[in-house]
Amino acid sequence: MKNLYTSELTKSTYDSIIIGSGVGGLTTAVCLAKSGKKVLVLEKHYAIGGFTHTFKRKKFEWDVGAHYIGQVNNPTSLIRKAFDYITNSQLQWDDMGDIYDQAIIDGETYNFKKGLQNQIDQMIAYFPNDEQAIRAYYDLVNKVSGHASVFFSEKSMPNWLSKLIGRQLKKNFLKYSKQTTYQVLSSLTKNEKLISVLCAQCGNYGLTPKQSSFGIHALVVGHYIEGAAYPVGGAANIHKSMEEVIAKHGGTIAIKADVKHIIIKDNTAIGVMMQNGDMLYAKNIISNAGAHNTFNKLILPEFQKPENTVALNKVMPSVSHVCIYVGLNASDEELNLPKYNIWLYENYKLDETRELHLKTKDSISPVFYISFPSAKDSEWPKKHPGTAAIQVLGSYPFNWMQEWEHMRWQKRGVDYDTVKEELKNVFLEKLYKTLPQIKGKVEICELSTPLSTKHFSNYDKGEIYGLEHTPERFELKQLRPKTNYKNLYLTGQDIIAVGVCSAMFAGIITSINILNRNVLWRIFRYKAN
User: Fold this and answer.
1) Fewer CB within 10 Å of terminal CB in the chain, N or C?
2) How far apart are CA 253 and CA 17, in angstroms?
3) Is residue 297 a contact partner of residue 27, using CB atoms and an 8 Å limit?
4) Is 255 helix (H, G, I), strand (E, B) or coil?
5) What is the distance between the alpha carbons of residues 439 and 390, in angstroms, rounded to a whole number?
């Protein structure tokens, strides 16, 4: 098996050891390796890439997390330039078209269109009596997105500079991130239906309007407002291209490399202890395992600090989900499948329906997200002719799966399999109702649960978005690259926000902290050879 962990790796010392091969970890590795540092990335499982991973069954394949990316259609955008830098411009993109999201709420359809003015016009067409509120809303989204750039860039500053000017830099974003999405939107309009439509993409961050921070809402809406794209060849090409860059610059990635804990001596991170007893040493240790995992699990109890864990543990893990992966024996063209994603809601009461769902065991998810990876990917017809692929995701609380939590993957017994089969049928019926033309064309359908997410991502509660994006989350002082242990750093979506792009920028900010160099300047100046 390629890149399999071996004890031979203990014979070397490293500039940096990175725990976890999600986008945050790989981006950090690329930036450090390109700066001449010797890096080692340790991945617990047999596949790298975190939520950019894809998997195959028969002649089909599906992504598990990277369903669409914003701002990469513009070659001059910072996000596109960052992707070009970390992949040496190997990664190409397929534009998803004029519509990138569609919400169907209580049978009524709302399209989210590419381009700010197009989207404003579309929303005004749906709600002509609310033009003033709609324009004010999109102005505010742009404003808060700008404040967010300053807020997160402060995390790249050395401690002395942060103490000097950090509060001033963060205050404009915190003014809005401290409020819920509903609080902000209800100050602009009293039209509850409009508020629900504007929040229809809230599944991208896992919380409904009265629970989520307006900061994350503005970030997500702003991210996609100029349209979305999908990696040519599938989401796995994100991590594959990064893996090549790391190898080209002398870095190493090891799979099935399970870290037991970080070695701390005199309040300094000096290495990692592996589950097999091996010890590896480096000048810097970087955790891409999530803030909860890092401070609560990877640091031994005798070295843990209440100032890290007490406030952090009050912010809960984000939503967990189930997903069906559907393979069809007809092409996207034959079935008239769209490139855009579909968000399905039974009614406009997003918060009330979610609360009822969480209180009612085995209830149906209040939202279903339908994605069409084969329709988005221009290479799919060449690799998988005459076929198509669909995914349907829905909420499913982790505690409903806890009775099977300690059983082995794929060996959890008849009761677990029965629950999975029942859920699969519910999700399929929802899909058939939305796209009746696919009935009779399904060749394969497989379902994953929160336990699958826990097994592959190592998130304790099967969460897909790290920490919940509540107002409290953005006030946590622990969510910075530099920790209060010398030479121990964090990276990944917890220190920025949900999503592949946030994880990538976390990697960039972490590398700035370690190198004490302006990596963003390199990214702006980068040109493909």
Assistant:
1) C
2) 10
3) no
4) strand
5) 13
Region 11-32: what's the mean pLDDT?
97
Q: Are 297 and 370 in contact (CB under 8 A)?
A: no
Burial class (CB in 10 A: 0-12, 13-18, 19+), 2: exposed
- Give the pLDDT confidence of 185-241 residue by residue, as tens digits: 999 999 999 999 999 999 999 999 999 999 999 999 999 999 999 999 999 999 999
Tokens 């300053």 identify what position? 150
Give me the torsion for CA of 487, 41, 79, 526, rounded to 10°: 90
Question: How distant, in Å, are the alpha carbons of 143, 148, 159, 493 from that of 166?
Answer: 19, 13, 9, 21
**pLDDT for residue 529:** 62
User: 280 vs 19, 26, 287, 485, CA distance in Å?
Assistant: 12, 19, 14, 18
Question: Could you tell me the two tokens for 495?
Answer: 């220190």
In angstroms, the CA 12 to CA 76 distance is 40
pLDDT of residue 212: 98
Query: Please, are residues 308 and 483 in contact by the beta-carbon 8 Å criterion?
Result: yes
| pLDDT confidence tier of residue 405, bands split at 50, 70 and 90 | confident
Say what angle helices 214-224 and 131-153 make with each other, to 10 degrees: 100
- Dihedral angle of Cα 71, 76, 81, 83, to the nearest 10 degrees: 30
The two beta strands, 39-42 and 14-19, are: parallel
Distance between alpha carbon 430 and the CA centroid of its chain, in Å? 25
Identity at 160, one-letter amino acid code: W
- Helix, strand and coil content of the chain, in percent to the nearest 5, comes to 45, 20, 35
pLDDT tens string 457-515: 778 888 888 899 999 999 999 999 999 999 999 999 999 999 999 999 999 999 999 99
Residues in a beta bridge with 180: 213
Residues in the chain: 529
pTM of the model: 0.96
Please say whether the beta carbons of 24 and 510 come within 8 A. Answer: yes
At residue 332 the predicted structure's pLDDT band, cuts being 50, 70 and 90, is very high
